[in-house]
From TrEMBL:
It comes from Streptomyces chlorus. Residues 37-56, 81-117 have a biased composition (Low complexity). Residues 112-234 form the DUF4232 domain. Residues 1-25 form the signal peptide. It comes from the Bacteria. InterPro entries: DUF4232. This is DUF4232 domain-containing protein. Keywords: Signal. The keyword Membrane does not apply. Residues 32-122 are annotated as: Disordered. Pfam families: DUF4232.
Length: 243
């Protein structure tokens, strides 16, 4: 091989190597111009999901929701609180069962008796020939005046009947310190009664065997005949003396 031919081959190899280096540089992005994405193909960033849209609760420091709840408080939690309040209210209604519990001792009624009352017998001018019995509750509890007083004057062997029309619609209940009344018709106003006599002592029997009271009579005594009768216990003097 001649020297000229050899130089020609060396030169060609060098030229080829240079071309190869140029192509390699182009393929590595050097000197290549990015024309960008085709028109209309640009992607739109996905919107960040908001707590309102996703049903979540703001959690940023110091952030509050429109209802004024502090950050970290959920509306669901608030509803739970109100639910708890409702439960408390319903349990409070059980307190109504407390009304069926023990009563105030002063409100529990027992029959009035000779040991828990004081009785007086007063002769009145009107109506004629009447005696007024007054019973006062001296105890610490309410008591009931049941029925009518069974009165016995002097040595009488029987008690007079009651005027049935005087029976009240309800039992007379006396609170401590209160008084009840009964009227006694001693004799006929026109003097037409029979078997009259003057009595100087009186015994009054409470109903239900609750004892006997012995109120004092006037020193001169009271005149009694077969017309005698008594009223049921009343809450007022006027009602007691109406018979």
């Amino acid at each position: 091989m001649s020297a000229r031919t050899h130089r020609t081959r060396v030169f060609a190899a060098a030229a080829f190597a240079a071309a190869a280096l140029t192509l390699t540089a182009c393929s590595n992005g050097e000197g290549v111009h990015d024309e960008g994405a085709p028109a209309g193909s640009a992607s739109t960033p996905a919107p960040a999901s908001s707590p309102e849209a996703s049903g979540g609760t703001p959690t940023g420091a110091g952030q509050t929701d429109p209802a004024g709840w502090a950050s970290g408080d959920s509306i669901g939690g608030a509803a739970g609180s109100s639910g708890t309040t409702g439960a408390t209210g319903s349990s409070g209604s059980a307190g109504s069962s407390g009304s069926a519990g023990s009563k105030d001792p002063a409100s529990a009624s027992t029959p009035c008796s000779s040991t828990s009352t004081r009785m007086t017998a007063t002769e009145v001018s009107r109506p004629l020939n009447h005696l007024l019995l007054t019973v006062t509750n001296t105890g610490s509890k309410n008591c009931d005046l049941i029925g009518y007083p069974a009165v016995r004057f002097g040595e009488a062997q029987s008690v007079p009947p009651a005027f049935e029309d005087s029976k009240p619609q309800a039992v007379v209940t006396l609170a401590p310190g209160e008084s009840g009344y009964a009227g006694v018709l001693l004799s006929a106003a026109d003097g037409g009664g029979s078997n009259g006599y003057t009595a100087k002592s009186l015994a009054v029997f409470f109903n239900d065997g609750a004892g006997t009271a012995r109120p004092s009579l006037p020193a001169k005594g009271v005149y009694v005949d077969d017309s005698i009768g008594v009223s049921y216990w009343q809450s007022t003097m006027a009602d007691a003396l109406a018979w």
